[in-house]
TrEMBL record:
Catalytic activity: L-threonyl-[protein] + ATP = O-phospho-L-threonyl-[protein] + ADP + H(+); L-seryl-[protein] + ATP = O-phospho-L-seryl-[protein] + ADP + H(+)
UniProtKB keywords: ATP-binding, Kinase, Magnesium, Metal-binding, Nucleotide-binding, Serine/threonine-protein kinase, Transferase
Single annotated GO MF: kinase activity
Region (Disordered): 1-53
Matches recorded under InterPro entries: Kinase-like_dom_sf, RIO-type_Ser/Thr_kinase, RIO_dom, RIO_kinase
Designated name of the protein: non-specific serine/threonine protein kinase
Amino acid sequence: MRERMPKRRRGFDDEYDGEYVPHPVHLHEDPDLPPAGDRWSTWTGAQQGPEPRPAWVETAHAAVDTELGVLKTGKEADVHLVERGVSGSPGVLLAAKRYRTAEHRMFHRDAGYQEGRRVRRSREMRAMTNRTAFGRELLSGQWAAAEFAALATLWSAGLPVPYPVQLDGTELLLEFVGDGTRAAPRLAQLRPSGPELAELWEQLVEALRGLARHGWAHGDLSAYNLLVHHGRLVLIDLPQVVDLVGNPHGADFLVRDVRRVAEWFTARGLPDSAGEELFHELVAEAGLG
């Protein structure tokens, strides 16, 4: 059995930090493991990403997943780096976002975000409201499913988000955004100025307009869940996407999203009026004005 990965502490949850811990580990203590790698591909039994799929998506039944290490740890989920491929062929790198089990997880922000979402069975709704062990498991699945659905919708609409490869229980496999095994940097790690700053802001405005056209706000937007890959801005961490109409606090989430990112950009030279202008533009785009 391979060495277990050490636990790591991070300051921000559910986001890439650009590095991984190179300590492979078997994902399951299963006697039917493949001869190499950590598990057989889970593609066949999973909910699969939207079509047309990118050419790089590995769908072969004989593919194997190899655990390369941890990209990011967080309160609700950890992000791992996984390589999926068939023996003798180059593999593809994926970001595996794994929501924590009930006994190791703390969904500290979910109440406000969950408003406007509906669960059909009253027993399940009561369990989630009362935070029973069963209810916490349901919440975990809801967060994973909500992020998968949001990414599928936004990717299909051409918005700059990672392609959602598959959803299997509470594990979400995503397109890995980076070079080699190094994830793209978060916006917060960069120091853009002048034309570069203006270009990134324009990309962000277009991305948020796309969200607003769907009637959504990101819900937890900041410079820490925006990646920049070769000059392209990419939105990540979308389990809490907010319905601007169905959620009674939708407008408040939108205000907070815009304020957070606008403050980051204005501190680096963007006009102070940019945030207010963006907010009114998004309200109009969502049909709320």
